[in-house]
Amino acid sequence: MASSSSSSQVKYDVFLSFRGEDTRDNFTSHLNAALCWRKIVTFIDDELVRGDEISPSLLNAIEGSEISIIVFSKGYASSTWCLHELVEILNCKGTYGQVVIPVFYHVDPSDVRKQSGTYGDAFGKHEVRYMERKEMLQRWRNALTEAANLSGFDSNSTR
């Protein structure tokens, strides 16, 4: 069990972070169903309204999870919401010892690690949109690199 502070109480076994447009109706829905079938309490953000900032309820869900599974897909880095989630997940890893498992779904882990390919394309757009917020861009880059260096699963080599 993740060590938690008095402000963080475990409510979920697993928090799923994913780009809905890419994987909601295929990989992620199957993963969620398999976890639920095994009686693993999973948080999946399928009813939240999207925006630029993460809602307090989502932050609480991330903080209140023992494990986060991050499904890196081709469009993951194009979502600022996903990138904010990722930073928070890695903060919880460092603060509470949360287990973080990356899944590289039809994307090369080195593209995530180095922000190349579709990840490089996404950052090209983010750099234009957020040119005045370089520290935020760097946090996102660092988070992607850190997460891609964790032991996980690559759909190109694991079925």
Q: Helix and strand layout, with pairings?
A:
Blueprint: E1 12-18, H1 20-23, H2 27-37, E2 42-44, H3 56-63, E3 65-72, H4 80-96, E4 99-104, H5 109-114, H6 118-129, H7 134-148, E5 153-154
Parallel strand pairs: 1-2, 1-3, 3-4, 4-5
Provide a concise account of the structure shown.
This protein has 159 residues and is α/β, with parallel strands linked by helices. It is built from seven helices and five strands.
Question: Which terms would index this structure?
Answer:
single chain, 159 residues, alpha/beta, Rossmann fold, five-stranded parallel sheet, 7 helices, disordered N terminus
* Tally of domains: 1
Beta-strand fraction estimate: 15-25%
Mean pLDDT: 86
CATH topology: Rossmann fold
Total helical segments: 7
Shape: globular
How is this structure best described in words?
The protein is an alpha/beta fold and 159 residues long. It has one domain: Toll/interleukin-1 receptor homology (TIR) domain (Rossmann fold, 3-Layer(aba) Sandwich), CATH 3.40.50. It is built from 7 helices and 5 strands; from the N terminus they run βααβαβαβαααβ. α4 links the parallel β3 and β4. α4 crosses α7. The protein is globular and about 45 Å long.
